[in-house]
Every structure is written in C-alpha cells, then in structure tokens.
Amino acid sequence: MPKYIYILCIGLAVFFCLISSDVFASNYQGGYLPSREIAKNKAVNQMLDGVEGLNQKKSYSTLAVTSTHSVVVPKREGMGIKPVYEREKYKKEMIKNDLDWIEFQFNMNSGMRYDYLRWSIAGDTNGQNPNILSELTWSDLWIYQIGTEAKVILNKNFRLEGSFDYGWILNGENQDSDYYLDDRGWEFSRSNNTSNGDNVMDFSLGGGLQFQVGAIEGWEDFLTEDLGVAVLGGYSHHEQNLRMTDGSQTIPASGGFDGLDSTYQSRWTGPWAGIELFGSREKFKGFSRFEYHWADYYAEADWNLRSDFQHPVSYIHETKGTGMVISFGAEYEVNDSWTAGITGDLNFWKADKGLDRVYFSNGAVVDTQLNEVIWRSYALMLSATYRFGGE
Fold it and tell me: pLDDT band at 334, cuts 50/70/90?
C-alpha cells in the first residue's frame, strides 16, 4: 500500500507546481519578470513602440536591478502611451501564445465505487468430478476511491495520458460454497463471511490521435458546438486485494468460528484500445468513452485456517481474460483554468478457463481447472480539473 501512496504524492506535487506557475504568472502585472522572459519582452516593447510612434516623447522610470534573476519592467509615461497594465496584458498574451501547441490537464477525483468478484473451480483438470467443486463470491463491496489523471495534448491532435486510482474497501460480503455434484448440486459446505479492510488499485497509461469534427449540421442544439473524436490505445493494471473475516458456517449450520483471516489478491494486466467522443457547449464540457482490454489474469490466495495448505501462498490462479470499460463525464467551466464535474465508470471483465494450482504443506502440488472469473465494478466520482496552455 505505501508505494501507491508515494505515487499519489508525486502526482499532487506536480499538480501544485502547475498551480504555482499560474500564480507566478499572475504577478507579472506587478512589474517583475523572470530573467528568461527579458529578451522576449524587449521584442514586445519594440513592437509596441512601433505602434505608438517612435517620434513621441518617452520617459522611463528608473531601471532597478533587484536580483540576478529579475528586473523592474520600465513604465512608460506621456501623451498617447498605453498604460502599463495594458502593456503587461499584451505581454502575457504573447507568452500564452508560445504554449498554444501544448496543453496540460490535471484531474483529481473522489467518490464511491461498488465491486463484485466471483470465481469457481472444477474437480479435475478436465473440468469434471464435479464441474463446479468450489465457488467463491465477493459481493456488495463498497469502496471509497480517490484518483488522479494527467493529459498532455500536442498540437491539438496527439494525446498522452495516465491515470491512477486507489480505493479502501469499507464493507462487503463473501460466500464460500463447496459441491458434491455437477451444476452446483448437493452443496455440502457454505460459509458466509465479512470482507472489508483491504483495498483496490488501478493505473493506466495510453495515447493516441484526436480530431475536431465540429458541430453536426441539424444537431447543433441537441449535441455540442465543438465535437471531437479520439482514437486511443495503452496498457493498464487492476488489482483487487480481498479479505475474508468474521466467519460463519451456514451449511452445516454450526454458526460463527474464530480466526478467519484469509486473503485473495487478483491482478488484471494487459493492453487496451478505445475510442472517445468529447465536446463543449458554452461553459459545459462532456465526454463518453469505450475501452476494450486484453488481460493476463493472476491471483494468489492464503487460506489461513487450512493447516494442510502452504502459507502465505496456498494456491494460485492463472488464465487469460478480456474487459470492457465504459466511461462518461460532464464538467462546468469555473474559470479559464478550472472545471468541476462528475464522472462515471462501468467495468465488465471476464477470465476464461485456466489453471488452479494448490500447494499443500507436505510439498504436494495439485492442479485443477479454473472455470472462470467474473469482475464487475461501478464508480461515480466528483472531479476538479486544472488546464494550462493550449487555446
């Protein structure tokens, strides 16, 4: 867990550096400029001099060197000369124009997430004896999640992006069932347990091309004034670190039992491809997005009450899977730099038949068939986005 918090802290540091740069830029009007801008402002002053007329009388305030890195911008006085604040406005516009080719976006979000995970195994490697021997389900997993996302857009057409999410499982339920017969027949054991106190984590890196389509004729009032399309691809990693505690045996009905603290840690990792529609209308922005994922699935479990299993790795799962992610959101422009909004994510993942390998305490290793793994996740988040550069 700490390594993920370190990554989040680095993201926050970058975020506040961006804010600081914007605040520093706002101090230009006071008359102090970084040394690297002196040459640029000299050119701007010469251009303004040409507009105002070189034959006009000029008087300058005393040039005071305040440090090795900044100087006081000279003030212009006299009939027909533009006020200092107007000149500084033009300078800031010129500086901003230098960043038209690149745009930075940094987003922070926070909200609630709901997860569901289920897997089952067969009695042998052929998927028989019986076809479902054991089935584990984690349901009603309520998660508080925070996240960050960064985007860099180059020349309005090429996009790089990355995101990181971390969530704490607040509450959830687990059921562990075992069967004698095929198709969940003759359930001879069931325990119903609590699942909380652990975490989930996701990160993704990607990039691609985006294009401005503009308004669609006849749909301007219904859709957007400025519609865009992005074709994207990347790589992602998703973790669910699940725990079983507060055990209760319901078949046979023997009641609660002490000491249950078993874990199941699953990983979905692989490439993805997607498409995004985005647009704006007046002060509102919105997007919808679809991603298709190809994943390697791997999981480790520690069944702490099974003395006949090894610890901390009692068994593993390995297989291949796929996933679909649908995202959507809307934002309101608070000012030129900030937007506030709401976003949603829907995840539908499935892993196919694979390997279930059990490690026994006597050194024996037994394989059987992993039938499938199903993962569903739904999140609704409040967000704030800071933008810098671009138009």
Answer: very high
DSSP notation for 297-335? EEEEEE-TT-TTB-SS--EEEEEEEEEEEEEEEEEEE-S
> Quick one: CA dihedral 39, 43, 44, 45, positive or negative?
positive
Please give the C-alpha separations between residue 116 and each of 127, 187, 274, in angstroms, as whole numbers: 24, 22, 24
Which pLDDT does position 156 carry in this prediction? 86
State yes or no: cis peptide before 34, omega within 30 of 0.
no
329: amino acid identity, one letter: G
Tallying the residues shown for the chain, one arrives at 391
Q: In which band, very low, low, confident or very high, does the pLDDT at 101 lie, cut at 50, 70 and 90?
A: confident
Asked if 249 and 365 sit in the same domain, the reply is yes
In angstroms, the CA 330 to CA 340 distance is 8
Q: How confident is the model at residue 95 (pLDDT cuts 50, 70, 90)?
A: low
- The partner residues of 32 in beta bridges, in order of sequence, read 72
Both 175 and 208 in one domain: the answer is: yes
Reply yes or no: is the peptide bond before residue 252 cis, omega within 30 of 0. Answer: yes
Establish if 6 belongs to a structural domain: no
Q: How far apart are CA 26 and CA 85, in angstroms?
A: 12
Phi, psi of 8 (to 5 degrees): -60, -40
- Closest CA relative to residue 391, chosen from 103, 106, 71: 103
Q: What is the pTM of this model?
A: 0.75
Indicate the number of domains in the chain: 2
CB neighbourhood size of 317 (10 A): 21
The range of the structural domain enclosing residue 219 comes to 103-389
Q: Are residues 119 and 86 in the same domain?
A: no
Phi–psi pair at 164, nearest 5 degrees: -145, 130
H or E element in which residue 67 lies: none
| 55 contact partners, CB below 8 Å, separation of at least 6 | none
CA distance linking residue 238 with residue 266, whole number of Å: 8
Whether the per-residue pLDDT at 70 is higher than 50: the answer is: no
Specify whether the backbone of 198 is left (phi greater than 0), alpha (psi in -120 to 50) or beta. Answer: beta
5, part of any domain? no
